[in-house]
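As a warm-up, study this chain.
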Amino acid sequence: MSPRPRLVFFDVMDTLVRDPFHDVMPSFLGMTLPELLRCKHPTAWVDFELGHIDEPTFLATFLPGRSYDAAGFCHVVRESYHLLPGIRDLLRDLRQTTPGVRLYALSNYPPWYRWIAERCELDKLLDGAFVSYETGARKPDPAAYLVPCQRLGEPPAEALFIDDRAKNCEGARAVGMQAIVFNSAEQLREELAQRGLIAAAS
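Now compare it with the structure written out below.
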C-alpha cells in the first residue's frame, strides 16, 4: 500500500470542474472543436496560461483574422464553470476525515482560474492553489510539481497528485509523487479509500 501523503494536489479542468474548451467555446464561436483547434492561434492559450500575455492580448490574438464578441465569449465561459458530479461531497469528506492532509489545486490555467474559484467555491473546499499563470510552469514540466512542494515545505514523496491526463500523472511520478489518473468521483473515492484518506462509498 502507498504511504499516506501529507499533500494532495488536484488538477482542475475535467478533474474537479468541467472544461468549457471542448463544447462551450466552439459553440459560442459557431465552430466545431476541430475547427477551433485548426483556427486558433498556435500559442496564445499556452502563453495566457503561463502569464506571458494578459487577457486583452489573448482575446485579441486568439483567433487570427477573425472578429468575435470577446466580452460575450468571456461571459459564457465564466458561466459554464461547474464542479463535476460528486466532487463537492468528495472534497468535503476528504477534509473532514483527513484533517492533517492539505488539499491544493495544481492547474494549467490562465487568470480565469479566479472565476472558477469564485463560481465553484474552491477556496472553501481547498487550502489553496498553484496555477500556471502564477507559477510560470505547466504540467508535465517538473517545475510545475516541484515548486508547490518547495513552497509548502514538503518533499514530492509526501504528495499525491490527481489528474485526468495520464501524461501529467507520469510527470508527477517522475519527480517522486504518487499519482492517480482521474476517471470519476466514484473511482477516485475508491482509490483514496484504499489509501486510508477517505471513507469508502456505502
